[in-house]
Structure formats: C-alpha cells, structure tokens
Specification:
alpha+beta, Fructose-1,6-Bisphosphatase, Chain A, domain 1, D-Maltodextrin-Binding Protein, domain 2, 2 domains, eight-stranded mixed beta sheet, five-stranded mixed beta sheet, binds D-MYO-inositol-1-phosphate, hydrolase
Length: about 260
C-alpha cells in the first residue's frame, strides 16, 4: 500500500469511528427533524449536521489541503488533489426512528478514482473498509462476495428516492422484479447495502438517483470484495443508476433493469 493510501485509510477510519460513537451514544431521545431538503420526507436532523461538522473539523486538522464534499453542504476545493466524500449519516430516516441500519460513509478520491472507502455501521458493531487494489474487510476480516446465484434465486437490495414521481416509477420496477427473484430488501442505507453485497448478505443491489456520498465508499468496498459495479450497460456507476453484484448476476440484473427503464423517473 502506498504511503498516501495508508494515511487516507487511517484518517478515514478514525473520522468514521469518532462520528459513529458520537451518533450512537449521543442520539437524543427526542430527536426531531431540523430541516427538509428535496421533499417533505427528505429530512435532516441536528445530528446529521453535527456529525458532518465533527468529520470535517477532524479532516481539516489532519489533512488541511484536501477538498471536501459532504451531504449536508460541506464543499471545499482543496489544493492537494485529494477529495473527501462524506455522508455523515447514511440512512437518516432509520436513525430518526431509532432503527439500527444507518452508517457513516467516508471515501477519499484522487484524479477521479476512489482510493479509500470506509463505512461504519455502529449498531452492527462493524466497520467495512477497502483500499484500491487492497481487498475489502469487515473489522479486520477479509470479505468476499457470495458466488452469483441464478437470477431467480437472487436476494436483491434496493432503495427509493425522496421524490413522489421517482418513487412511483421505482415501485413499478420493483413490481416487475419481485416475481422473478428470491426476494427484495429495502434496508435504508445505500452504503450498507453496497457493503452487504461485499459481505454476501445480499446477492445484488441497485438504486436510481443516489448521490456520490451515498455510494463512493460502498462502491469501492463492493468492488474490492469481487463485485462488479456500474450503471446502465456500458456506463460507469453514477447517480443515474447504481448496480452492484458478482460477475454473471451483475450483467443479468443490469440488462433486466435496462429493459425495465430503471434509470428514468
Ligand atoms: C439515503 C439512503 C437510502 C437510499 C436513499 C438515500 P440518506 O441516504 O441511502 O437507503 O434509498 O436514496 O438518499 O438520505 O439517508 O443519507
């Protein structure tokens, strides 16, 4: 591992651990919605804002020349060429309701490539991590995707956006898929869903409309565990469509999603 990757991993692990403990131990019993974003159900809590501040303050101390892109508005350019992509709580609705499936997602990118990804899932007692070319790990154990099952035996994770029109179309896609796969799961944290593909707890995952902070770290972790990730056939993974699965199943799911027009609203 290069010195840069090792340093970025160390910083990402420390930042995610600090934010994870803060969120797990400091969740107010009367936590409410501080603001809404793209729709009335797209919420921000005071803890999303405080977690992003904790992480960006830590990064500013440890890597002052890096850029930052955070879900709750952090945006600095930096001069080092390294950019941090942060979701201070991925799965905010789960966190708001006291459900355990939420995470802190932190990735470091350079020259358009993700070098390091860390996803901390404190309520699971697990942290997932990967360094480009270095494999993927849960805590300190290496992880590997589950071998691809036939399409009709796949357990497929997905998620829904916050806009009603998009959700209506996403529901149509799910309606078509459910009868032809083992089952569908909607966990509520895209970062955890991608890590669950890496861990073999899901066979596959797809979602339309994610943002870089939702997928940057989980995408690298899934790939380093042996998954293929991408968007529409021939396209890289993006906000348009995010697909992750082991080779074989990946292409089958990608083609089926293309037939179903899963990339549009
Ligand atoms: C959301 C979660 C959810 C996914 C949504 C995301 P947030 O992120 O990852 O699983 O379905 O599309 O926006 O808002 O909790 O950070």
């Amino acid at each position: 591992m290069t010195d840069l990757k090792a340093e970025l991993l160390d910083v990402a692990l420390e930042a995610a651990a600090r934010a994870g403990v803060f969120l797990r131990d400091g969740r107010p019993a009367d936590l409410g919605v501080a603001a809404t974003k793209t729709s009335a159900v797209d919420v921000v809590t005071e803890m999303d804002i405080a977690s992003e501040k904790l992480i960006t303050d830590f990064l500013a101390e440890r890597r002052p020349d890096d850029g930052v892109l955070g879900e709750e508005g952090a945006a600095t350019e930096g001069t080092s060429g390294v950019e941090w992509v942060i979701d201070p709580i991925d799965g905010t609705v789960n966190y708001l309701y006291g459900r355990p499936e939420w995470s802190v997602s932190i990735a470091a990118r350079k020259d358009g490539e993700t070098l390091v990804g860390v996803v901390a899932a404190p309520m699971r007692g697990e942290t997932y991590r990967a360094v480009l070319g270095g494999g993927a790990f849960v805590n300190d154990e290496p992880v590997r995707v589950r071998p691809a099952p036939p399409f009709e035996q796949a357990l497929v994770g997905t998620g829904f956006g916050y806009l009603a029109q998009r959700r209506a179309h996403q529901a149509e896609v799910v309606r078509e898929l459910v009868p032809s796969v083992r089952d569908i799961r909607r966990g509520g944290s895209a970062a955890i869903d991608l890590c669950d593909v890496a861990l073999g707890r899901l066979d596959a995952y797809y979602e339309r409309g994610l943002n870089p902070w939702d997928f940057a770290a989980g995408d690298l972790i899934a790939r380093e565990a042996g998954a293929r990730t991408g968007g529409r056939p021939g396209d890289a993974l993006s906000g348009e469509l995010t697909v992750a699965a082991p080779p074989g199943l990946f292409e089958a799911l990608q083609n089926r999603l293309e037939e179903l027009g899963a990339w549009h609203d």
